[in-house]
Amino acid sequence: MADRNYLFVCSQNRLRSPTAEQVFCETAGINALSAGTNNDAENPLSDELVEWADVIFAMENTHRNKLRKKHKAALKDTRVIVLNIPDDYAFMDPELIRLLKARMWKWLPTH
């Protein structure tokens, strides 16, 4: 089975989504990237990234809403899952990593 492309999205692409990218980029069967919904994000969300993704994981409902508004044409039928992870963590915070793994377990390939 081909690798799945997972895109993690938060606001600034500085803390939560880059942490998720780091954590899951080493997972067999997954290609992970991250982006931010804000214009001044480290890696701003683009139509190209949205089209690349098989599944998009938004940290909060606001990110899903911005994604649907700004990138509706590129989104097509791509599944968007909200992880409900608040902006309360530093980059690579052990608690954030634990929370990401707990929320992502059912989306990870089984080997």
> Helical stretch count?
5
Query: Strands of the biggest beta sheet: in what spatial order?
Result: 2-1-3-4
Count of individual beta strands = 4
Strand percentage lies at 15-25%
Describe what you observe in this structure.
This protein is of the alpha/beta class and 111 residues long. Helix content is 36%, strand content 20%. It is built from five helices and four strands, in the order βαβαβααβα. It has helices spanning 16-24, 47-52, 61-70, 72-75, 94-104; strands at residues 4-10, 30-36, 55-58, 79-82. The protein has a four-stranded parallel beta sheet with strand order 2-1-3-4. α1 (16-24) links the parallel β1 and β2. The radius of gyration is 13 Å and the shape is globular.
Based on the model shown, name its key terms:
single chain; 111 residues; alpha/beta; four-stranded parallel β-sheet; 5 helices; 4 strands; globular
Structure in a nutshell:
By secondary structure, the protein is α/β, with parallel strands linked by helices. It has helices spanning 16-24, 47-52, 61-70, 72-75, 94-104, and strands at residues 4-10, 30-36, 55-58, 79-82. α1 crosses α5 (94-104).
